[in-house]
């Protein structure tokens, strides 16, 4: 006997930090929501990647009642930007933008655990071990098939939100990804240095790629990007040689590098969907755009996606012509997000191209550029604003 599919107003596929942020942002409204996540409960996930959160993200996480419960985010009160081998450097401080801190560092897994707990505390319908396999959408509805504990299940919704990091969207008509593989890999690890500058984050552009040290408790979270072929070799170095090489690339600002924790690596691509909406469907977070972590924009941008989508949905009563999933609601959301997304993507991509070129003339110009930036508060303010708030709409 054929069973009738269960119906929801909104199904969110992917319960990563962005999907959960959306579910939490919608908790006060009357919509029926289902959140589907392929992994086990968040507590089982161990992902040490540091996330630099902007002040704007802090404000959103405060609205979601997440911020208060996060385990000690470390404030960034200074960002020191420099270019290896060249004389320029610039320093961004909160005075450049008039806020208490430039940003905060948290671990992916701390954030993920806190959000997972909150999703359950609010009684959001949340299924883990639920691997979505098939999506079908038309003008009227979205249909989602998933596997859970060996059983195939199917549901229908007025609106399908894809927050799966970018695996499933191409099943939707008219959507494909533009992909640029930088052939770079990010090495992530916690490191201890002989000297520690509380609250200072370092972003250093080396000939191999950008190297960031983010203050995290009393140590630094390292995000070190370099060509993949090189990263494979660097990952194989023993701790002592790894630390020596890191010191050589970073310079003497923090004296010796004393200790390195477990190293993890992530291949880096820039990937964005040709359009972020389809029939009855929308993509947010990494599913809409995956950015290079150089400027720490990816999650911040994804969080703004979730926040703005929740705002758009909250203004769309069921049964009206702009109900969740209607063409009208979706194009309003798309329009609202266009500018912020475009700038976040271009900003990150230009930063990489500008600082990873091996032309020495350009390198020298970069050196001059950074020094000039230091003398020009308005330009500095512009960069700081982009890194902190993203772009405000319209
Ligand atoms: C090394 C590194 C450092 C970074 N640093 C920063 C930083 O400093 N600041 C910043 O803002 N961003 C940073 N980022 C980017 C940030 O990690 C991402 O933007 C963020 O994780 C995106 O969240 P998401 O929820 O969209 O996607 P994800 O975190 O990828 O979550 C997607 C979820 O969907 C689930 N899923 C996938 N497929 C399915 C399926 N078929 N069915 C059901 N569920 C599914 C997955 O299990 C996962 O839980 C960094 C990234 C890297 C690699």
Layout of helices and strands, plus pairs?
Layout: E1 6-13, H1 17-25, E2 33-36, E3 50-54, H2 55-63, E4 74-76, E5 78-83, E6 89-92, E7 103-107, H3 108-121, E8 125-127, E9 130-137, E10 142-148, E11 151-162, E12 177-193, E13 200-206, E14 209-216, E15 219-227, H4 228-236, H5 239-250, E16 257-260, E17 264-273, E18 277-278, E19 281-283, E20 289-290, H6 298-314, H7 327-356, H8 360-375, H9 377-389
Helix pairs in contact: 1-3, 1-6, 6-7
Written description of the protein model:
With 394 residues, the protein is an alpha+beta fold. The protein has a single domain, classed as FAD/NAD(P)-binding domain (3-Layer(bba) Sandwich), CATH 3.50.50.60. It is built from nine helices and 20 strands. The strands form three sheets. Strands 5, 6, 12, 13, 14, 15, 16, 17 and 20 form a nine-stranded mixed sheet that branches. Strands 1, 2, 8, 9, 10, 11, 18 and 19 form an eight-stranded mixed sheet that branches. Helix 1 packs parallel to helix 3, helix 1 packs parallel to helix 6 and helix 6 runs antiparallel to helix 7. It is elongated and about 65 Å long. Flavin-adenine dinucleotide (FAD) binds next to helix 1, strand 3, strand 9, strand 12 and helix 6. The site of flavin-adenine dinucleotide has 36 residues, from helix 1, strand 3, strand 9, strand 12 and helix 6.
């Amino acid at each position: 006997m054929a069973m009738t599919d269960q119906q929801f107003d909104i199904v969110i596929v992917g319960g990563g930090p962005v999907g959960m942020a959306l579910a939490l942002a919608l908790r006060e409204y009357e919509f029926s929501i289902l959140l589907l996540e392929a992994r086990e409960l968040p507590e089982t996930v161990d992902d040490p990647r540091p996330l630099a959160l902007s002040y704007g993200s802090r404000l959103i996480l405060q609205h979601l009642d997440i911020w208060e419960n996060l385990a000690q985010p470390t404030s960034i009160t200074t960002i020191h930007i420099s270019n290896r081998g060249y004389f320029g450097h610039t320093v961004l401080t909160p005075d450049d933008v008039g806020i208490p801190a430039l940003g905060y560092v948290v671990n992916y897994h701390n954030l993920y655990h806190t959000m997972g707990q909150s999703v359950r505390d609010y009684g959001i319908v949340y299924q883990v071990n639920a691997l979505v396999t098939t999506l079908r959408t038309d003008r009227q509805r979205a249909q989602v098939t998933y596997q859970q504990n060996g059983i195939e299940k199917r549901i229908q919704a007025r609106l399908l939100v894809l927050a799966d990091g970018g695996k499933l969207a191409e099943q939707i008509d008219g959507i494909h990804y533009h992909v640029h593989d930088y052939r770079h890999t990010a090495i992530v690890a916690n490191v201890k240095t002989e000297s520690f500058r509380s609250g200072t984050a370092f972003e250093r552009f080396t000939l191999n790629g950008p190297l960031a040290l983010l203050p995290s408790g009393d140590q630094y979270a390292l995000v070190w990007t370099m060509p993949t072929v090189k990263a494979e070799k660097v990952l194989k170095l023993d701790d002592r040689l790894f630390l020596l090489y890191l010191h050589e690339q970073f310079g003497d600002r923090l004296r010796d590098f004393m200790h390195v924790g477990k190293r993890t690596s992530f291949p880096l691509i820039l990937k964005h969907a040709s359009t972020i909406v389809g029939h009855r469907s929308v993509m947010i977070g990494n599913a809409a755009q995956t950015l290079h972590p150089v400027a720490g924009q990816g999650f911040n941008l994804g969080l703004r996606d979730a926040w703005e989508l929740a705002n758009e949905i909250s203004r769309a009563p069921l049964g009206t012509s702009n109900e969740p999933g209607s063409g009208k609601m979706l194009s309003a959301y798309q329009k609202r997000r266009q500018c912020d997304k475009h700038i976040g993507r271009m900003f990150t991509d230009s930063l990489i191209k500008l600082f990873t070129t091996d032309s020495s003339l350009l390198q020298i110009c970069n050196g001059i550029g950074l020094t000039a930036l230091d003398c020009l508060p308005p330009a500095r303010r512009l960069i700081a604003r982009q890194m902190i708030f993203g772009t405000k709409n319209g």
